[in-house]
TrEMBL record:
It holds the Pfam family Peptidase_S46. Keywords: Aminopeptidase, Hydrolase, Protease, Serine protease, Signal. This is Dipeptidyl-peptidase. One of its GO terms (molecular function) is serine-type aminopeptidase activity. The keyword Signal applies. PANTHER family: PERIPLASMIC PEPTIDASE SUBFAMILY S1B (PTHR38469). It comes from Flavobacterium beibuense F44-8. InterPro entries: Pep_S46, Peptidase_S1_PA.
Length: 714
């Protein structure tokens, strides 16, 4: 009997631990080095992360907060995804110079284009500060008071830990509040656009192929970091010079094979691998379907305008891609969770967890955990749904409402902090909104609004809505607002915001658009948000206890990785194909032949540039081809998530072999439930990147500044 239980334990508990995982670079030595070597790695943990010597981490900055990038030359040349540099490429584009459509290549240093709001951030060092952060908190039982004390401690650590004047200290939590780490970071803000392929390469397959294998996208763009004369961060200046990195990646063109070791190094944003089953059920039955339906409507409307009007196509390109991306992700995620029986697997794990707790005499601490989870998730259900409707409809998909909400916040600032704060904030708001309106089209937004406001009013929990929204005539409401509100143009907003605070308040409150936003926001802020926050805090406390339990009750050799939190992580695995369904096997590598198979002349998503077709026909692949074929993308068993885009894929010796940009459709649920048999990350082969730069764009100066290794003997 005992033996049987042990067996069950071994079968169930390692579900979290076996393969996958996003590991903390400073802890690799104890946790992972052995396994990495057994998978074929030829480096040591300190080659990857070291505080005293240069190491791979010095070549991997976070790109603009949301993506990853890597330095690939001694002159600060930076590689990331096309979809990560998309906003910048779009910002430099007009109908006349359309770099999204045609690509952009700076043929000299002088041609490289500055980007006012772009920054990249390097990690200088990582330190465990758990003791300092949790100091004096163990005796506090009230959750709110406990969190307050923790925040105070974090503020102290952040303020008092040593750093250079241009650096910044950041504290982040790991294992849901069971561990805290300090990051010393430095950010460079003069980062210039160097090159981007046309979208027909960099975004080949667009939304149809997004999250899908087999894939044929050359999803890369290039930037360069500039520094002052001392190689330190500096605001843009003509006098800045290319940054000299502590480390840069040599690029391997030796090729890859199935089962080769791979390491992906980057900034995964957020995962929730340790959610209880009841939370996953809620995502499946309520939250994902609601968000998917909202975006479905927004996308249909926007798409129809973009296909008709090239100016709108540029204006909405980045927004559309952003909205479509998670829309499709949630669809795949729900399907994957169903198909892998994630809820049942979690339930089995939970049953076992409780048995373990009882067996080890910890029933007081953990025995009631899942009942409490269930009660809290039931309680939060309507609030969570209502909140998602608010976020999706008001803050993410309807611009008039999003702008209106900013002005609503401005009013709050005035009411709470007075005229001076109001004036400061007003300046910032106006500056930010100028960019918003550059990419705003009233007709598009009006149609989106009409659809979404009806969804909001009819499908979100009614008890929390403002009265005026229930059973209204949504067509008429839309017509009135877009006919009369000043929120439909930047000039209109400037007019609303002119004059002193009192005048502004009066004008705002007479505006039909603002009135609606205010009614909706007031309702959200009084009826939904406080209760949501309160229950959520309680759920977080339960999750912290659960995590503690997982760490304590798992077998000693089970390695448990902390959920992603936008900090630097290492994930590793092998180049590997997979079987998505019965009788089908996916090879791990795609070739240019596949691009030509998908080619549809003139198509919105699958057109191929003439020059690329010519190179293909002549098999003119330079030193980058392999047996007369040009490799394009490959997949591996590295556990990645959003934020890993642009991450370097590194070989056993530390050379760059690929550029991470996506995951496969069957495995999009990996943020919640990682299944090693079908979860794969997708990378562009560096040989394809170099081929495009060299043979397609003729930008050979970039090739010349890289260190290219593993060339074939002539
Ligand atoms: N799915 C990838 C990631 O999450 C690539 C997204 C590119 N955007 C797109 N809509 N095609 O970011
Ligand atoms: N495409 C994602 C990103 O932008 C990566 C992923 O979700 O796999 O970070």
């Amino acid at each position: 009997m005992k033996f049987l239980r042990l067996l069950v334990l071994l079968l169930v508990i390692p579900a979290y631990a076996q393969q996958g995982g996003m590991w903390i670079p400073s802890l690799l030595k104890g946790m992972n080095e052995k396994e990495m070597k057994s998978l074929g790695m030829k480096m040591s943990a300190s080659d990857i992360y070291d505080v005293n010597h240069s190491s791979l981490k010095d070549a991997v900055p976070q790109f603009n907060g949301g993506c990853t990038s890597e330095v690939i030359s001694p002159n600060g040349l930076l590689l990331t995804n096309h979809h990560c540099g998309y906003g910048e490429i779009q910002a430099h584009s007009t109908v006349e110079h359309d770099y999204l459509t045609d690509g952009f290549w700076a043929m000299t240093l002088e041609d490289e284009l500055p980007n006012p709001d772009l920054e990249v951030t390097f990690i200088v060092k990582i330190e465990d500060v758990t003791t300092q952060v949790l100091n004096g908190t163990s005796t506090i039982t009230d959750e709110e008071a406990k969190q307050k004390k923790i925040q105070e401690n974090i503020a102290n650590v952040t303020k008092n830990s040593p750093k250079e004047s241009w650096q910044e200290n950041r504290v982040r939590t790991f294992y849901e509040g069971n561990q805290y780490m300090l990051f010393v970071v430095e950010s460079y803000t003069d980062v210039r656009l160097v090159g981007a392929p046309p979208s027909s390469i960099g975004k080949f397959g667009s939304d149809t192929d997004n999250w899908v294998w087999p894939r044929h996208t050359g999803d890369f763009s290039m930037f360069r970091i500039y520094a002052d004369k001392n190689n330190r961060p500096a605001a843009y200046s003509k006098d800045n010079v290319p940054y000299k990195p502590k480390h840069y990646f040599p690029v391997s063109i030796g090729g890859i094979q199935e089962d080769d070791f791979t390491l992906v190094f980057g900034y995964p944003g957020r995962t929730t691998e340790y959610l209880p089953s009841v939370a996953v059920e809620q995502i499946l039955s309520s939250l994902n379907p609601a968000k998917i339906e909202i975006r479905d409507e927004a996308l249909k409307v926007t798409d129809s305008f973009m296909r008709r009007d090239p100016a709108i196509k540029i204006q909405y390109a980045a927004k559309y891609a952003r909205i479509a991306n998670y829309w499709k992700k949630w669809i795949g995620e729900s399907q994957g969770l169903e198909k892998t029986n994630a809820v049942a697997a979690k339930k089995a794990y939970e049953k076992n967890f409780i048995e373990q707790a009882n067996k080890t005499g910890k029933q007081n601490e953990y025995g009631n955990l899942f009942n409490e989870f269930e009660a809290k998730y039931n309680e939060i259900a309507p609030y969570a749904l209502s909140r998602d409707y608010f976020l999706e409809v008001v803050l993410r998909n309807t611009e008039l409402l999003t702008v209106g909400f900013r002005l609503y916040q401005l009013e709050q600032v005035y009411n709470m902090r007075g005229e001076q704060s109001f004036n400061d904030r007003k300046g910032n708001t106006l500056a930010a909104l100028e960019g918003t309106y550059k990419d705003f089209n009233k007709n598009v937004d009006e149609k989106v609004f009409e659809k979404l406001i009806e969804l909001y009013a009819t499908k979100s929990p009614k008890q929390f809505l403002p009265a005026g929204l229930i059973n209204a005539d949504y067509k008429l409401l839309t017509k009135n607002i877009y006919g009369e509100s000043k929120l439909t143009s930047y000039d209109g907003v400037k007019e609303l915001l002119s004059g002193d605070a009192k005048e502004v308040m009066e004008k705002l409150n007479n505006d039909k658009g603002f009135q609606l936003v205010k009614a909706i926001s007031d309702a959200f802020i009084t009826n939904v948000n406080p209760k949501y926050e309160q229950i959520n805090l309680e759920i977080e406390a339960l999750q912290r206890t659960y995590m503690k339990g997982i760490l304590e009750l798992s077998p000693k050799d089970a390695r448990i990785f902390p959920d992603a939190n936008s900090t630097l992580r290492v994930t590793y695995g092998k180049v590997k194909g997979y079987s998505p369904r019965d009788a089908v096997y996916y090879e791990p590598v795609t070739y240019l032949d596949g691009v030509m198979e998908k080619y549809v002349p003139g198509d919105y998503e699958f057109d191929v540039p003439q020059k690329l077709i010519e190179l293909y026909n002549k098999k003119d692949f330079g030193q980058y081809g392999e047996n007369g074929k040009m490799p394009v993308c490959f997949i591996g068993t590295n556990h990645t998530t959003g934020g890993n885009s642009g991450s370097p894929a590194i070989d056993a010796k530390g050379n760059l072999i690929g550029l991470n940009f996506d995951r496969v459709w069957e495995g999009t649920m990996s943020d919640i439930y990682y299944d090693p048999s079908i979860c794969r990350n997708i990378m562009v082969d560096m040989r394809y990147v170099l081929f495009i730069i060299d043979k397609y764009a003729g930008c050979t100066r970039l090739i010349d500044e890289m260190e290219i290794v593993n060339k074939r003997k002539k």
